[in-house]
Each structure stands twice: as C-alpha cells, then as structure tokens.
C-alpha cells in the first residue's frame, strides 16, 4: 500500500486546491524553491496520518492552519490522502451496506463523489443535507457518526448554543428507534457532552483516547462517545 494522491486546499501556503500525483510505490522526491510549500506539503501529510489534529483543541491553533495571504479570506481547509491498496495490505471493508455520507456543502459532496467513483465504493450514497434545517427525514439511519460537525457548530459565532440543540434534536430524529450515535469531539469533555445530550441519548460507552495532564488533573485529547437513542 502506498500514497497515490494528495489533495490540499486552504491549508497553510496552499490557498487553491492542489492535487499532487502520481506517486511511485518505492521512492519519491519533492523539489522546489525556498518558500514554494515543500515543508507544508509534508506537514499536510503528517497532519492527516498522525495524531496532530487531535491536539488542536483551541480555535487559535486551528486558525493557524488556514492560508493567510492577499485576496478573500480562507475560512476552511482540508487535506485528503488517497492510498493504493491493490496489494490488499489493508483488508477491504466488509459487512457494511447502505452507507450515506452527508454534508451541507455541495462542493464537499462533489469531491466525495469523485473519490467514491475512483475507489469504486458502491455501497456509499452521498447527499447534501443541512443538519440544522427543518426538513430532516425521520427514522432513516441505524447509526450516525459525527467526527467534527458538532465541534464546527459549536464554533459558530451566531448563537452556537441554539444551533447545538437543533443539531442534537435533528440527529435524534434521523436515527431509528434504539439506533446509535457515535460522536467524536476535540472541544468538549465527556461530562459536557453528556450534559448536552442527556435529553435525547443514553450513554453506552466511551472510547479511550490519548491523555494529557495539566495542573494535577488528567484529561483526554479527544472524546468519543457511543450513545443510544432515547425513544420519544
């Protein structure tokens, strides 16, 4: 298995979407002038493949990852790495059907569609859906997985508390009776999340994560909860 494509957009010195390919399965050399983005290219790969992202608990740390320069301000960024797994070093996904990827951004869904077609992921559906809207379908999914949406909503400058409540209520609506909600957060502690969610979800289990100590107290760099829908 080896990296065959890297896509960077809005990250550090990469303002516009940059697609780097192809890669050789054995050796690759990156060359360029000083300031051309070589170091940021490797940092982008490190950011995805290491635990770098889980340590960015504060908004100012995440802000430092965005491109800063002339022109319109960059407000979001992403780094995507596509692997060649033709040697089957990583076992193929099995046992999952009727998967749906949801995002409010049409551009994000278009990008995901390209990846889906390239990887021949026939069991995944993609749709544009604003999870803060009123037209949320009811009792559709057995499991909902959140790997950053709740944190992003929490950073909204316009009444984030109200938007968090709307999001939780809508996720509860989408999940079938006795369905599961798996939530990962880098901003909230387990106690805080459980307080936010207790009206709609029952805590089943917490997934362990790297810990840090400060001032004599121990905490997690990231919190992941498995929750069960409470029937209305």
From TrEMBL:
Stored SUPFAM superfamilies: P-loop containing nucleoside triphosphate hydrolases, S-adenosyl-L-methionine-dependent methyltransferases
Residues of the RecF/RecN/SMC N-terminal domain: 2-95
A Pfam match: SMC_N
Domain of life, per lineage: Eukaryota
Domain Methyltransferase as annotated: residue spans: 98-205
Protein name: EEF1A lysine methyltransferase 2-like
Protein species of origin: Diaphorina citri
Gene: LOC103515952
